[in-house]
């Protein structure tokens, strides 16, 4: 096979397979590979065995960025190969989407750590209507020496616990690389991550999109003799970098948890406080609330709105098009924003009129003692601030919504048949 490095992606077929054979399949096994010539041949055979056990027709697609003979060996064993530049795991999956022929997709690693002879749990769940199926090494078979102690007892449990707390999930192994999903769900997830963080992004977006999710046990093996894992190849810092990237992704995609929910809570607290004090000072549970409290509640309301709109903007930018996305688009629709902002502004002006009238009556000076008009004015100030904030943000949100288009995926080109006769 001859790989043209100037082309972004090239699709190769094994000997004896032509374009006429590219018919729809039930299952597509899509696996990135980087210099896996030690394991790739046996891995493809495992995939064939796994497909046979599930009694399904399937596609085996190796997304290869290797400099060794990985691609040739995969072709020789009957897999399709998509040659791509080395741009990261997330990018590899994005590049594969136009070439997927299956109704379901099963992802994983080509290093013989995940046992692809055991595809049945994934296929059965997908056939039952589940849209996203996570593998779990901790609920399956995990020999003591198959995973470093740092990962097994600290990194994986800690980051899994954090994600479950933030997103209200119950996963047991968020870093398991073997997972299955419908091709439709794969497209809807709309991956943006180019590297390791794709794994966390995929889980988080599955939660945001409310995909029907299940978790199944998997068998995990230690590295084969003579093979070194990619993390070890990158040095001792790699596990810590991977953990930080995973945590960073959770925070970046956690706009609901960190911004929208706290923002709504602050806004409601502030609005209730300003509304309760709009007629003058009040006493509640033996505590007196006056103008200073009124201003504090106004600050809470404005802070809450700011958190809320930043969170909504973050959701728009990272591209989760779920029911909440449609709801926020209606709230911040430009036409709606013009009317709502104008209404809030006019209500604010009307709330100021009693204070203006009092100001004129006292010869353009205010009395020393506060009157209910001052409390009305604070509420009016809040309404006018909200009108400006809502209108300005609606302009920005409309622009961002129009600008955020799906990631442009490479167009599938005619596959190149190869005899894979190169010796290795």
Overview of the structural elements:
The chain folds into two domains: 10-253, Spore Coat Polysaccharide Biosynthesis Protein SpsA, Chain A, CATH 3.90.550.10; 255-403. It is built from 14 helices and eleven strands. The chain has helices at 40-53, 70-76, 89-96, 120-127, 149-167, 183-189, 198-208, 230-234, 238-252, 255-276, 291-317, 323-331, 334-361, 372-403, and strands at 10-13, 25-33, 58-64, 80-83, 102-107, 132-141, 179-182, 213-219, 282-284, 287-289, 416-417. The strands form two sheets. It has a nine-stranded mixed beta sheet, sandwiched between helices. Strands 9-10 form a two-stranded antiparallel ribbon. Helix 1 links the parallel strand 2 (25-33) and strand 3 (58-64). Helix 10 (255-276) runs antiparallel to helix 11 and helix 13 packs antiparallel against helix 14. The relative contact order is 0.12.
Notable characteristics:
alpha/beta, Spore Coat Polysaccharide Biosynthesis Protein SpsA, Chain A, 2 domains, disordered C terminus, 11 strands, single chain, about 425 residues, 9-stranded mixed β-sheet, about 50% helix
